[in-house]
C-alpha cells in the first residue's frame, strides 16, 4: 500500500523545481509520478544513475534534478560508505561533514581508507514532509529489513548480475534484535560449511568452521554483546549438529545479531563483486549544481578526504593589469566577470565544476582528462568569439591541465583541493603564454585526449617546475 502524499507541499515544491532551471520535456512529471506511485523501497536511497538509465534520461540532468529537488526539500541526500568486499553499508550519514578518513567493516574485519572516487555513494530519499515511508523510521523495521535493506546495498553484484545482498539473504539463518540489557538464545542446525555470525555495530564477529564427527549434544557459543574483548575476529571449529548462541546484551541500546551458513568452499570476502554505476563523492563534488546549491557542505575530517584521480584545470588572463589601465577599473572588472561566466558555462557543459577564482584566474575540476581538454579548447574558441565584439578589449587566456591524486578539504568555509597534483596543475598553467594550452604527460596520454588533439599542432618539452623535484614532460597546444 502506497503511503499518503502531502499534496499542497508537493505541488508547491514541484512548481519551484519547475522554475529552478530549464528541464527536458515531462521530466518533472516523471519525478512526480515516482514520488506518488513508487513503493517505499524505491523512494529510499535512489541511485540517480539507475533512475536515469531506466527512463532513458541524461545522467547529468538527473543529478541536477535530484540536487535541486533536495535543495527545495523534496528529497534528502544520503551519503553511504560501502564495503568493497561484502557490500554492506559500513556507515551512512546525511551530509558530507559526517565523512571520515578511515572506516572499518565489522563483517569482513577489514579497514579501508575513504576515497571520494571509490566506495562513497550519494543517493536520495524522499523527504518525510512530502511522503512518509517505512525507511524514515528504521528502528521500526523488522530486523531482517533493517539489516538487508538499510545496512547492505544492492549495488554490489556478482558476475551473473545477482546482487550480493540477495546471495547473503539466501544464506542467512537468522537476523534478530537484541533488546538492551536482556539475554536470549538462537539455535541452528549445521551439517557442513562455515557459520558466520556478526553484529552490524561491530561488537561481535564469529567465524565457525564445521568439521569432524557430529556432536553428541548442543554446542553453546556465549556471545557478550558490548564486551570490548569480543571485538577481535573470533575463529573457531565446531562439530556438525546443533549450535546454540547464548546472547547477552550488556549495553543500554538495542543490538542486532545476524547468522549465516556458508557452503563449503564459499568465501564471502573473495566473491568477484563489482558495483553498478552510482553517484560517488568525486562526481558530486565535480558537479556545479552541488557547489552552487550546497555551499554550506564542508569536510570535517582534519586530514581531508582523498580522491585517487582528479583532473584539474587552471586558467589565467595575460595582461590583465594592462587591461585595467587601458579601459578603467569598472569596465575591466565587468569584462573579467563576463569572462568568468563564459568559462563556467564551458566547464559545466564538459562535466566539470568551478572550485574557485583567484584574482583573474580560475581553478576547475573535471571527471576525466578528455573532458578538461575539450573544455580548454572550447574556452579558447569562445573567448576568441567574445573578443570580436570587444574593440581593443581583448581577453587573452592561458590554460594548464594536470591530473592525479589530491585531498578534498575545506578551506575558508569552501570545498577545495590540496596537494602536489594541485601545485603541479597551477605550475603547468604558468608555462602557458597567450592563447596556449599546456597539459602534463599524464593528461596527454589519457583516454580520448589524442583524438581531441590529433588535428592540432602539439609540441612536447621537458620543464622544471618550481616546487617539483622531478622534471615534467608537458605538451603545448598552440592556437589554430
From TrEMBL:
SMART domains: CYCc (SM00044). GO terms for biological process: cAMP biosynthetic process; intracellular signal transduction. Residues 311-429 form the Guanylate cyclase domain. InterPro entries: A/G_cyclase, Adenylyl/Guanylyl_Cyclase_3/4, GUC-dom-containing_N, Nucleotide_cyclase. Pfam families: DUF5939, Guanylate_cyc. Transmembrane segments: none annotated. It comes from the Bacteria. Signal peptide: none annotated. GO terms for molecular function: adenylate cyclase activity. This is Adenylate cyclase, class 3. It comes from Bradyrhizobium erythrophlei.
Amino acid at each position: 500500500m502506497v503511503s499518503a502524499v502531502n499534496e499542497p507541499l508537493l505541488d508547491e515544491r514541484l512548481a519551484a523545481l519547475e522554475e529552478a532551471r530549464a528541464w527536458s520535456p515531462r521530466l518533472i512529471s516523471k519525478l512526480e509520478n515516482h514520488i506518488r506511485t513508487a513503493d517505499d523501497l524505491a523512494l529510499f536511497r535512489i541511485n540517480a544513475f539507475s533512475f536515469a538509465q531506466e527512463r532513458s534520461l541524461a545522467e547529468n540532468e538527473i543529478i541536477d534534478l535530484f540536487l535541486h529537488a533536495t535543495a527545495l526539500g523534496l528529497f534528502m541526500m544520503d551519503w553511504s560508505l560501502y564495503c568493497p568486499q561484502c557490500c554492506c553499508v559500513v556507515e551512512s550519514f546525511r551530509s558530507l561533514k559526517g565523512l571520515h578518513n578511515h572506516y572499518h567493516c565489522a563483517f569482513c574485519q577489514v579497514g579501508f581508507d575513504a576515497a571520494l572516487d571509490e566506495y562513497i555513494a550519494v543517493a536520495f530519499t524522499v523527504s518525510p514532509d512530502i511522503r512518509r515511508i517505512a525507511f524514515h523510521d528504521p528502528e521500526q523495521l523488522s530486523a531482517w529489513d533493517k539489516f538487508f535493506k538499510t545496512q547492505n546495498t544492492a549495488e554490489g553484484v556478482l558476475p551473473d548480475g545477482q546482487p550480493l545482498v540477495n546471495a547473503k539473504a539466501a544464506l542467512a539463518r537468522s537476523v534478530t534484535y537484541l533488546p538492551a540489557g536482556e539475554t536470549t538464545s538462537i539455535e541452528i542446525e549445521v551439517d557442513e560449511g562455515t557459520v558466520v555470525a556478526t553484529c552490524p555495530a561491530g561488537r561481535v564477529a564469529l567465524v565457525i568452521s564445521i568439521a569432524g564427527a557430529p556432536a553428541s549434544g548442543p554446542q553453546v557459543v556465549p556471545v557478550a554483546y558490548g564486551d570490548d574483548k569480543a571485538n577481535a575476529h573470533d575463529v573457531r571449529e565446531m562439530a556438525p549438529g546443533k549450535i546454540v548462541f547464548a546472547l547477552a546484551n550488556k549495553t543500554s541500546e538495542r543490538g542486532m545479531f545476524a547468522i549465516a551458513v556458508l557452503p563449503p568452499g564459499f568465501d564471502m570476502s573473495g566473491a568477484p563483486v563489482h558495483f553498478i554505476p552510482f553517484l560517488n563523492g568525486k562526481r558530486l563534488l565535480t558537479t556545479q549544481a552541488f557547489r552552487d546549491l550546497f555551499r554550506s557542505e564542508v569536510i570535517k575530517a582534519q586530514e581531508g578526504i582523498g580522491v585517487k584521480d582528479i583532473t584539474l584545470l587552471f586558467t589565467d588572463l595575460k595582461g590583465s593589469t594592462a587591461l585595467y589601465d587601458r579601459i578603467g577599473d569598472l569596465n575591466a572588472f565587468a569584462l573579467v566577470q563576463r569572462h568568468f561566466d563564459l568559462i563556467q558555462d564551458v566547464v559545466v557543459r564538459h562535466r566539470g565544476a568551478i572550485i574557485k577564482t583567484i584574482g583573474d584566474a580560475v581553478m576547475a575540476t573535471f571527471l576525466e582528462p578528455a573532458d578538461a581538454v575539450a573544455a580548454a579548447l572550447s574556452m579558447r574558441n569562445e573567448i576568441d568569439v567574445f573578443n570580436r565584439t570587444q574593440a581593443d578589449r581583448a581577453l587573452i587566456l592561458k590554460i594548464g591541465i594536470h591530473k592525479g591524486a589530491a585531498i578534498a578539504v575545506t578551506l575558508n568555509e569552501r570545498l577545495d583541493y590540496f596537494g602536489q597534483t594541485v601545485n603541479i596543475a597551477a605550475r603547468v598553467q604558468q608555462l602557458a603564454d597567450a592563447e596556449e594550452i599546456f597539459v602534463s604527460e599524464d593528461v596527454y596520454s589519457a583516454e580520448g585526449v589524442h583524438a581531441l588533439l590529433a588535428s592540432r599542432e602539439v609540441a612536447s618539452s621537458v620543464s622544471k617546475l618550481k616546487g617539483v623535484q622531478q622534471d615534467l614532460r608537458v605538451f603545448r597546444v598552440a592556437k589554430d
